[in-house]
Design goal:
About 85% of the residues lie in helices and about 0% in strands. The chain is mostly helical. The protein has helices at about 5-15, 20-35, 40-55, 60-100. The radius of gyration is 20 Å and the shape is elongated. The model has no long low-confidence stretch (mean pLDDT about 90). It is built from four helices and no strands.
Length: about 100
């Protein structure tokens, strides 16, 4: 994996050469997906598909694109958090049953 550009370099690219910024984003995203575990690749590719669709839909409004991607991220985060909380509740139930047996 090549060295990721600094924030200053990314800002400069966003202002002066957005096509190059998109190329870098795609390159690093693909590297991450390629190096992911097999069971995670399809989900990561799906997320990339959604992000590319958001970018294409909002190609003339980068702020709207950023807001839509942020919403996508937070929606995913809340779903993951809900699943984690459900798992914790189930673990607590199992612990209670186990403690009652002992």
């Amino acid at each position: 994996m090549d060295k990721f550009p600094s924030v200053d370099e990314l800002i400069k690219l966003a202002k002066e050469n957005p096509e190059e910024l998109n190329r870098i984003q795609e390159k690093f995203s693909n590297e991450i997906i390629d190096n992911a575990r097999e069971e995670n690749k399809a989900r990561l590719q799906g997320i990339m598909f959604q992000m590319n669709a958001i970018r294409l839909k909002n190609k003339d409004n980068h702020l709207k694109s950023t807001i839509a991607m942020s919403k996508l991220m937070w929606t995913s985060f809340y779903k993951m958090n809900d699943k984690l909380q459900t798992l914790r509740k189930e673990q607590d139930k199992i612990s209670l049953v186990k403690d009652k047996r002992d």
